[in-house]
Amino acid sequence: MTKTRTLCAAALLALTAMGASAQILIGQTAGMTGSVAASVNETIGGAQLVIDAANAQGGIHGEKIEVVRMDDAFDVKRAGENARVLIEDKKVVALFMSRGTPHSQAIIPWLDKNEVALIGPSTGAMVLHKPLQKHVFNVRATYQREAEKAVQHLLTIGLTRIAVVYVTDSFGKDALEGAMTGFTKGKATPTVTVPADRDKPDYAAIVPAIKDANAQAVLWIGSGIAVVDGIKALRASGSAAQVVTLSNNASSGFIKQLGDASRGVIVTQVFPSERSLGQPMVKEALTLAKAKGQAELSPAALEGFASAKVLVEALRRAGPRPTRAKVLAALESIRSYDLGGGLEVSYTPQDHSGIDFADLAIISDGRFKR
């Protein structure tokens, strides 16, 4: 009897070990609470559509994907520490979809130390593209491309008195560089450039600077609540200046937070319209969303969806029981991987850029419209 019990216990331990090994652990640190929570949680929802669909089909080579998520509340130091825990303690095979430029920069030392890939960071910072970051694999377009396109659009429609408000961190400086490229190409200069603290913007100084410059339009480079409160303060001052912000604010949550101040705000986009039902990636995402009872998508959800497709493809190419090294090699083997409708992602050992797509959408009736 004792021998039988011992054998049963050993079998149970073996099965438990097999079950544990049949999970592919992926790590994520992002601001699931805090100033960018609305858009972060929408990107997570979009990504989960892909991950759940893959798991429902038996996983990748029989192994299911489990994303270990840690909330950094959009705090740079917490993002770096979370990355350390995920990589060194949780032993994830890759990191996925961090949020924020300085936050992603804080993660890079842990990637480099442990030879771990970061797939689809939710930031368009040029610093993650050039010079090459060996372990960072971008999916979305750069902020510089977006900011340049936004300025060119405003100049094209005859708005020449353009103010630029930019957050004083690596994200803000990066996007400002793109904006200045747009001004240079348009043979123009901003009427005023106004720095803004990331956590506590001084609207009492920012808004008068915009009004004193008699700005017809404002390119507001910032994130989440900080931009929402800034736009509300601008409207409360009586300014009717056209406001443009970047795709890091392209979420349904951003529109809801703006409330009545949302109408007419332009938000740059890095993926096709979520209502382009003929676009294959959008159609696929919407089909999966509806199966979960979700009636519509947001631009943020589409970004998460696209990044998760790259993650799943990399894991598929890495083969059974993927290691960190296998995932890295798999990513660099990706050439012209079609996310749907001609949106292709390619990586080489010299280039880890993603999709070069930038568009504009205006908020109308509580929705983004192209």
Automatic annotation (TrEMBL):
<dbReference type="InterPro" id="IPR000709">
    <property type="entry name" value="Leu_Ile_Val-bd"/>
</dbReference>
<dbReference type="InterPro" id="IPR028081">
    <property type="entry name" value="Leu-bd"/>
</dbReference>
<dbReference type="InterPro" id="IPR028082">
    <property type="entry name" value="Peripla_BP_I"/>
</dbReference>
<keyword id="KW-0029">Amino-acid transport</keyword>
<keyword id="KW-0813">Transport</keyword>
<keyword id="KW-0732">Signal</keyword>
<feature type="domain" description="Leucine-binding protein">
    <location>
        <begin position="24"/>
        <end position="355"/>
    </location>
</feature>
<dbReference type="GO" id="GO:0006865">
    <property type="term" value="P:amino acid transport"/>
</dbReference>
<comment type="similarity">
    <text>Belongs to the leucine-binding protein family.</text>
</comment>
<protein>
    <submittedName>
        <fullName>Amino acid ABC transporter substrate-binding protein</fullName>
    </submittedName>
</protein>
<feature type="signal peptide">
    <location>
        <begin position="1"/>
        <end position="22"/>
    </location>
</feature>
<dbReference type="Pfam" id="PF13458">
    <property type="entry name" value="Peripla_BP_6"/>
</dbReference>
